[in-house]
Structure formats: C-alpha cells, structure tokens
Amino acid sequence: MEENLPSLENLIDKFQSLPGIGRKTAQRLAFRVLDFSDEKAYAFADAVIQAKRNIRECSCCFNLSENELCGICSDKNRDREYICVVEDVKSLISLEKVREYHGLYHVLHGVLSPRDGITPDKLHIRELVYRVQDPDNKVEEVIIATSPTVEGDTTALYISKLLKPYNVKITRLAYGIPVGGDLEFADEGTLFRAFKGRTELE
Amino acid sequence: MEENLPSLENLIDKFQSLPGIGRKTAQRLAFRVLDFSDEKAYAFADAVIQAKRNIRECSCCFNLSENELCGICSDKNRDREYICVVEDVKSLISLEKVREYHGLYHVLHGVLSPRDGITPDKLHIRELVYRVQDPDNKVEEVIIATSPTVEGDTTALYISKLLKPYNVKITRLAYGIPVGGDLEFADEGTLFRAFKGRTELE
Known about the structure:
Two copies of one chain form a homodimer.
Chain A: H1 6-16, H2 23-35, H3 38-54, E1 56-57, E2 64-65, E3 79-86, H4 89-98, E4 103-107, H5 125-133, E5 141-144, H6 150-163, E6 169-172, H7 188-196
Parallel strand pairs in A: 3-4, 3-5, 5-6
Antiparallel strand pairs in A: 1-2
Helix pairs in contact in A: 1-2
C-alpha cells in the first residue's frame, strides 16, 4: 500500500538504511514520526542536521568534538602522560564509563585490515606517532586498547613496533575470562588468553 | 562523554523517543548518522519533514494518503459494497498483504477504551455510520476486523449495534488457532474462540 505514499515509503527507506533496522521496524518508526506534532517532527529533522553540521573530530585525538579540541583533550585535570589508543569513539565511551582511566585518548577510526584496503595511512596512526614524539606532550605510557581480534592484535603489534624507538612504555589491555563469567561458557580464544596472561597469587 | 556534545546528545534523545529504541540503540543510530555524507544526512532530515507535510488522512476512510482520497478509495477496481473496519493503518497494511480482500476500508484510529478516555466520539465511528447510511455507497457488508481483545470486542459490538438499523450484513473476522500453530501453545482465550467458532465438516 506504500506505493501510493511516496513520502512514507521514502521515510521508511531512510530508517531502514540505519544499522539493525529491518523493514518492519522502519515502518513502525515512520508511523511514529507521522504521529508526531509538526514541531516535534521539525525538531527531529533539525537534530539530524545540527549533529551532522556541528560535530567534527578533535584535532588532537580524533574523538568527536564540537570544538577544535574535544572535552577530554581540553580537560586540565586529565593525566596527560597517558594515551589510550582505541579503535573508535564507541570504545572510548565504554572505557570512560568505567571512570578508572584519567589519561588522554587517541582514536584510530578503524583497525588494520589490508584485505579490506585498510592500510596504516587510512588510520590516524601517523598522528599518534607525532603526539608521542613531541617532547612537549611528555607521553610516558601508550595503552593499546584495540579489540582482541586478528585485526585488533595486528594493529596493536604494528603500533607498538612503530613506537618502540621513542622512550615510552607500551602496554595492552588485559584479556581473559570476563568478571562474573563462567569457565564453561568461555570460548577457546579467551581461555588461551587467560592462560597466557595468568598472574601469580601473592 | 556526550555532555560535551550537545548536538549528539540531542540526536540520541530524539532517536530514543521513538518506540522500541533504547539508549544503546539510539547511540548506535546517531553514530551512523554522523558517518553519513552531508547529502545523505540532509535527505534523511528532509524525508521526515516531507512525510509529515505530505501525508494526511483519506477524507473517506481515514487511511493514510497524500491526496484527498487514498489509493484504495480511489481505485475503481475495488468492490465498493464491502467495508472492512480496522483499528489502525498497520492492521490495514497487514490485511492488504493477504491479497484476498478487494473491498474498501474504514480506519477507526483506535478502539473504545473508556478507561483511557477513548469514547466513541474520539474514533471515526460517526463517519462509518454516514458511509453505511448513504444509499449512493451501496454498502452490503461491514466486516469488523478489530483485534480480539476486550477493547476490540467492545468496539465491534458497539459498531454492530449502531449499524443494525441499516440493511447491511455485519460480520467479524474469524478468530481461532493460527494456521501452522500447535494446540499445545495456544492460550486459553484462543482455544475458547476456536471452540466457539467451530465449523461443521462436510
């Protein structure tokens, strides 16, 4: 029946182009938008445009920002000697939620995957090296927090080799059995990592 | 971290106001929009505004339409003697998918629920009576297809009583065990309906 309603069809298509939204859900969302007041519908459309227009990448760490520097880079209270290297902004947000880490970040915007054409020059790796090189930054430790996947590990290894010449400590997040997890349900990769990363009890 | 990104925060809020979209999903959708090209983001925003601006209710059956009459009401090939009464446009779309029914519709835009303040005057019931009354329409049968819920049944009963004085056949969709369903999993209400609606084998 949507063939008679090109505007509705178009809106459903737009919703469907978002990740994890199928035809049925897109239809449900589009119907909800039709129920909106005019004001609310315009506010929704405007939110899309404003977000797209105002948000850019931090010129230092490539986190999302509405200014030249992001909230973290411009925060005077952060420990500037630490740089945590993450794949994407979503990882950064997850790590920030822990409230354990108070250093800076560096967002690569991807991981190395030559098969998909993602070579080092496609990621913000060169800028990371510049940050570490610059004596003004006084970087002491680079914590690599890429995912424990083939690509994430490759990226971590590549970066650690690149940074070796500079006098900084390079670490990687610990991977193992998740807290509260049951051994029974841990996959072999995780168990292998857990064995390799075992620590001595004191 | 979104506190430093009011535009992003606003977009996430807007997505979260849609049905079935939680915080995590809203965040994922907002990030996807940020990855859009400028052109695609504007097209998305425009789709919301155009849908809201162009789509209205059919003046005859209250289905969604971009014109005075909806695609079904203006289709000369439909059987105009039948009116199928549905709660909402979603029900209409589901019924249209079956391609079994070729009559017209009447969308109530809700079901009677005095508890929630939905009284007959809040629904398009009066307009249905006018349609049935009008000898030009030559209505022969009104098929009531409201949901088999307390509210749906009440609405069906209310409408059937209202239409009794006019010389039309009033029917209700059959409810029972779904095709391919297992008795074991059918709830009591469905089984009760299945018993009540049993038909003789010939």
